[in-house]
Design a protein that fits this description.
The protein is mainly beta. The protein has one domain (3-181): Beta Barrel (Thrombin, subunit H), CATH 2.40.10. 5% of the residues lie in helices and 40% in strands. The strands form 6 sheets. Strands 6-7-10-11 form a 4-stranded antiparallel sheet, with no helix packed on it. The chain has a 4-stranded antiparallel sheet with strand order 12-13-14-15, with no helix packed on it. A 3-stranded antiparallel sheet has the order 5-8-9. The protein is globular, with a radius of gyration of 19 Å.
Length: 250
């Protein structure tokens, strides 16, 4: 949702709740007593009511962080997180439930976060003790893959266009980028075979961010607006399902 949470290892008590995405505007902070966000009425569809279009809500319904796994490195003390950098306009309306039919009751439009790098994603590293961003690497589309960190100081992630990317874990400097046949929404894996370390990634566009291309949808507001936000994705990648394996040099 755009906040980083630090919990007590023993009790599970919420200790720190900081914004890790500076574009978050729908809440000012998290109440440390209740664990609930302090919502800003201007961006609250609940406060504004039905049939009112609340504009410029950041992040969008995709969240700054959705289901993509992050990775923590005990060597650097940082989390490495694939994120979405997308805002939305959201207009709720009354809808009656019908079994077997979509039950949404909202019209959404999604777009890149304003006053930013122009893209819709970032791969970020933030300090686990403070929740502060140490570095952020921008991407054209939402970063929907999992993250992999290694003892060798290299982090890996994938992009919706289909690139496998390797970066230096300390400063985010890009070390390697390889175009796979389709968009990457899965996890990056590593294993040892024959005495050598390998990196493997399954590419095949899909997921919420890639639903338009994967399902052949054209309505910009379909997928709660994700189709419109990623409408140009088809210019950069194709459908498919391919496992690509790399051998690391000695």
């Amino acid at each position: 949702n755009g906040f980083a949470y630090t919990l007590d290892r023993v009790t599970g008590e919420l200790l720190v709740a900081e914004k890790y995405d500076p574009s978050v505007n729908w809440a000012t902070h998290v109440d440390m007593k209740t664990g609930r966000p302090a919502v800003v009425d201007k961006f609250s569809t609940f406060a504004n009511g039905a049939d009112t279009n609340s504009e410029g809500i950041c992040p969008a319904a995709l969240g700054s962080k959705d289901q993509q796994p992050a990775s923590f490195s005990p060597d650097t003390g940082m989390f490495y997180v694939p994120t979405n950098h997308i805002c939305m306009d959201y207009e709720p309306f009354e809808v009656s439930y019908s079994a077997g039919q979509p039950y949404v009751g909202a019209t959404l439009s999604m777009y890149p976060a304003p006053n930013s790098h122009g893209g819709m994603g970032n791969f970020i590293a933030f300090d686990a003790t403070t929740g502060k961003i140490v570095w952020s690497k921008p991407e054209a589309f939402a970063v929907w893959s999992g993250a992999l960190t290694t003892k060798g100081g290299v982090a890996f992630y994938g992009t919706l266009e289909g690139y496998l990317v390797a970066v230096d874990m300390k400063d985010g400097k890009e070390l390697y980028r390889f175009k796979t046949p389709s968009g990457i929404i899965g996890n990056i894996n590593t294993f040892v075979a024959g005495g050598k370390q390998h990196i493997a990634v399954l590419s095949g566009i899909g997921g919420w961010a890639g639903i338009g291309l994967a399902a052949g949808l054209n309505d910009p507001q379909a997928g709660l607006g994700a189709v419109g936000a990623h409408a140009s994705l088809g210019q950069y990648t194709n459908l498919g399902g391919v496992l690509t394996v790399f051998t690391l040099p000695d």
